[in-house]
Design brief:
The protein has a domain of 183 residues. It has 13 helices and no strands. The longest helix has 38 residues.
């Protein structure tokens, strides 16, 4: 179902986020789940390494490798989700294979952008937290910009700052509402797992986690990641288009492109 490009209220933006998520659930779940499977393997390897007492060096190597895999898989899934939302919003056919194929050549650039933003935000958080929050909001559209406009690190950062200027409050509200929802839902599995484990394991009651509990927790994290991670990216991609509609009349630009693509029938001579 096509939806007209126009400025959205916060309520409309959130409503459209969950509408797209529900309507294209298999698409978004597949995009998030495929990279997360790779991450799950490394997380389970880390659990088993600690359980088998492979030594501090082995643990450090696996931990660093897991962090790197988390960065790569997270960036890949985020970029692919941005492509999927854009295709859906602009009423174009897409698939899991197509979005991964389109994002694969730019994964290195997107990782550099993610690291750059992450370092800036972390340094800002060290400066009494508020600067870090402001930087996170300012650069919240960096990945959508980089993916959809095919820009580099500096250009993506600058472009995101331009698009979000004057609307940081709106973006903060979107972040807060979705982040609170994601946190509440994602905490349900660990809470239930530990509660059930405590009923049957004295080690859990003593404050320790047997290996089977850690494995169950990792599988729960995998499911939560696959189910919840697309939501924020969908919302931020819609914010990107919303800002372009508000500041650059992208809705009119898109309408003109569609009109130009219509092939008018050649008039027949009498």
């Amino acid at each position: 179902m096509a939806q007209t490009l126009r400025p959205l209220t916060i309520g409309e933006l959130l409503d459209r986020t969950f509408f797209y998520y529900r309507r294209h659930f298999v698409l978004f779940l597949g995009i998030a789940a495929l990279p997360s499977v790779v991450l799950l393997v490394f997380q389970l390897a880390s659990v088993l390494a600690r359980f088998n007492e492979g030594g501090p060096l082995v643990t450090v190597i696996i931990t660093l490798t897991t962090l790197f895999v988390y960065l790569v898989t997270g960036t890949l899934a985020q970029g692919a989700t941005v492509v999927a939302v854009s295709q859906i919003l602009l009423v174009r056919e897409t698939s899991i294979a197509e979005v991964f194929t389109s994002i694969r050549p730019r994964i290195g650039e997107l990782i550099r952008i993610s690291v750059n933003v992450g370092v800036r935000v972390m340094l800002g958080l060290l400066l009494l937290i508020v600067p870090g929050v402001l930087l996170a909001l300012r650069y919240s559209l960096t990945i959508p910009v980089a993916v959809l406009e095919e820009t580099g690190v500096s250009a993506s950062l600058s472009r995101s700052a331009t698009l979000t200027k004057g609307h940081l409050g709106r973006i903060l509200l979107v972040y807060f509402l979705l982040f609170a929802l994601i946190i509440v839902i994602s905490m349900m599995w660990p809470f239930l797992t530990m509660a059930v484990a405590a009923m049957f394991s004295s080690a859990v009651r003593a404050g320790q986690q047997p290996v089977w509990v850690q494995v169950v927790l990792q599988f729960g994290n995998f499911v939560s990641q696959a189910l919840l991670s697309p939501v924020m990216t969908i919302a931020l991609t819609l914010v990107y288009y919303d800002e372009r509609v508000r500041k650059e009349a992208f809705d009119l630009e898109h309408m003109m492109v569609q009109l130009d693509s219509v092939v008018l029938p050649t008039p027949r001579l009498a």
